[in-house]
């Protein structure tokens, strides 16, 4: 079976949202675990060559996950997530913010809404990320640029997207 | 205070102005002719775009011409493209992880 499912990535600049859709070749409970259990998240969420470690996680409404992305040089970029809504194996929402090593969040953060649907052994995941500002996105990327190939798409494409909105 | 670029391009009139001056530098009057709005309103939009460094002004004779800061626009695109690449990479890692877990279960 193919695991190279197409990533659907759309940016709505006016609504300040990024929507990410992807299908995974695994059943719902496994995919749900991969998105909600820290020991699994730490394995796939950090873009290589970064790694991640979770200091603690309490997956319940009002509970938090405090974790760091670690650069190859050993720099720790801490974030804190608070779970705001959980419907098991269907949907969960959280508020994500950068933090210092003492768990003090840097506001504003971003709102994340994850929806899961199973279809004959594969699972679709829909993520909507609401960012208060693009400056924040810029910061996210600063941390991730290591080892990543920069890609410039042309201005015409951007203008075409803008004029469609 | 530096304005937020996202805020600047959230407005439909400002997006239309960007599309217009991407093609050629224009005076505020010429820009205003394309919109069913006052010259003052267009000036305000231009001021916001200028504060975000998305447009630049050039004086020619008595007229001020506005044109697009193409590098700044590319910057936005660059960030978004990088962000997309991060997610592609992550999900490839997740595919591998899911596949490994399934193998272990068998």
Description of the structure:
The complex is a heterodimer of chains A (165) and B (106). Chain A is an alpha+beta fold. Helix content of chain A is 22%, strand content 44%. In chain A, α1 crosses α2 (38-44). Chain A starts with 7 loop residues before the first strand and ends with a helix. Chain B is elongated. In chain B, β1 and β2 (63-68) form a beta hairpin. Chain B starts with a helix and ends with a helix. A two-stranded antiparallel ribbon of chain B has the order 1-2. In chain B, 26% of the residues are buried. Helices cover 68% and strands 11% of the residues of chain B. Chain B folds into two domains: 1-68, Winged helix-like DNA-binding domain superfamily/Winged helix DNA-binding domain (Arc Repressor Mutant, subunit A), CATH 1.10.10; 70-106. The A-B interface holds A 3-5, 7, 9, 11, 13-14, 16, 18, 20, 22, 24-26, 30-31, 34, 40, 43-45, 47-48, 131, 133-135, 137-138, 140-141, 144-145, 148-155, 157-159, 162-163, 165 and B 4-7, 9-10, 12, 15-16, 18-19, 22, 70, 73-74, 76-91, 93-99, 101-102.
List keywords for this structure.
heterodimer; A: 165 residues; alpha+beta; Alpha-D-Glucose-1,6-Bisphosphate, Chain A, domain 4; 8-stranded antiparallel β-sheet; B: 106 residues; mainly alpha; two-stranded antiparallel sheet; 2 strands; elongated
């Amino acid at each position: 079976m193919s695991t190279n499912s197409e990533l659907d990535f759309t940016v709505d600049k006016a609504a300040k949202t990024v929507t990410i859709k992807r299908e995974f070749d695994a059943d719902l409970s496994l995919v749900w675990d991969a998105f909600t259990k820290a020991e699994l998240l730490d394995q796939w969420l950090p873009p290589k060559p970064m790694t991640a470690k979770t200091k603690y996680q309490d997956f319940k409404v009002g509970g938090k996950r405090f974790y760091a992305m670690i650069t190859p040089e050993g720099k720790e970029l801490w974030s804190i997530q608070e779970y705001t809504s959980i419907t098991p194996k269907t949907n969960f929402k959280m508020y994500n913010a950068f933090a210092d090593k003492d768990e003090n969040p840097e506001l504003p953060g971003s709102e994340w809404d994850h929806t899961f649907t199973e279809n004959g052994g594969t699972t679709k995941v829909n993520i909507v990320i609401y960012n208060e500002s693009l400056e924040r996105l810029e910061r996210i990327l600063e941390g991730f640029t290591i080892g990543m190939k920069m890609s410039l798409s042309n201005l015409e494409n951007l203008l075409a997207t803008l004029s469609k909105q | 205070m530096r304005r937020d670029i996202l805020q600047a391009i959230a407005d439909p009139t400002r997006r239309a102005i960007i599309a217009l001056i991407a093609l050629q530098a224009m005076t505020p009057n010429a820009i205003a002719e394309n919109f069913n709005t006052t010259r003052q309103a267009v000036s305000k939009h231009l001021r916001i775009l200028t504060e975000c460094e998305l447009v630049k002004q050039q004086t020619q004779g008595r007229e001020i011409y506005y044109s697009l800061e193409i590098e700044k626009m590319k910057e936005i695109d660059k960030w978004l493209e990088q962000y997309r690449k991060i997610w592609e990479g992550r999900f490839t890692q997740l595919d591998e992880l899911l596949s490994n877990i399934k193998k272990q279960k068998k």
